[in-house]
Write a structure and sequence with these properties.
Elements: H1 2-11, H2 37-56, H3 66-86, H4 94-101, H5 114-117, H6 120-125, H7 129-140, H8 147-164, H9 169-179, H10 189-195, H11 202-215, H12 219-229, H13 233-248, H14 252-259, H15 264-280
Helix pairs in contact: 1-12, 1-13, 2-3, 2-15, 3-4, 3-7, 7-8, 8-9, 8-11, 8-13, 11-12, 11-13, 12-13
The chain binds magnesium ion.
The site of magnesium ion has 6 residues, from helix 2 and helix 13.
Amino acid sequence: MIGEMIGDMHGAQYEFEDYKLKKEEYPLFSSKCEFTDDTVATIAVIDALTKIMQEAGKNKPLNLSEENIVELKKRTIEAFHFYVKAYPHCGWGSHFHQWGMNKDTKPYNSWGNGSAMRISPVGWIADSEEEVKILSKAISEVTHNHVEGIKGAEATAMCIYWARKGVSKEEIKARVIRDYYPIVDMLDYDTLVEEYRFDVSCQGTVPPAIYCFLISNSFEDCLRTCLSIGGDSDTLSAIGCSIAEAFYKPGKEWKKKAYKFLPERFCRAIDYIESWVDDREPTE
Ligand SMILES: [Mg+2]
């Protein structure tokens, strides 16, 4: 979650730039950082998931009954409507913005990377791979009901879940290639730096974002790697860093710095879900 937002706020300033800096040249937490739709949509997803989290509390399993999933989808739609109106100029894609402003409740078959950029909370609250799939699909298909939209979100949430559970990078890579994106095996950093361009699709954003995480050696390195390949920079960095957060567990300093760029209400939402996750982690 906060990893997603750190990626977003750093990538936002380069989203429409046609140049790429070297990895080490990107300034961190400069005054040009700003959160965008990626962050706001993630907060909306946290809001929508709150009832399911509250019901489960510290000890009970998540109740993902059909009835609760219907309720979750309804809450997700309402939360998106609310946040589009509350933050109308934070960089929403035109379709999503229109859908939100019109209070539309029907999906529009999107394959855009918006489904993946907002899904990180699912990777943190799910207790099993099956739960990742159910929750991810429910949240995605309220707008992104195209097969690629659903897949991009599930792949992202699943990587976060695996990383959180201590699965090795080799295993994550093997499973991503097998279950989601065989192309990840063929990506190459230097080629991406040279050739990768702006792409708002899930299938064009999620594989390179996962790849940047896989070749990184720290949370900061993942952020810099994502920024340096360019493209839809805020969203690609948001996705890559959401996985890197779960894997590297960056220190509190990162969160402290990021919070300076976020509204108080967003910080409270993140604190809530993090303490909920902590309460449920098995203790030795
Ligand atoms: Mg954005």
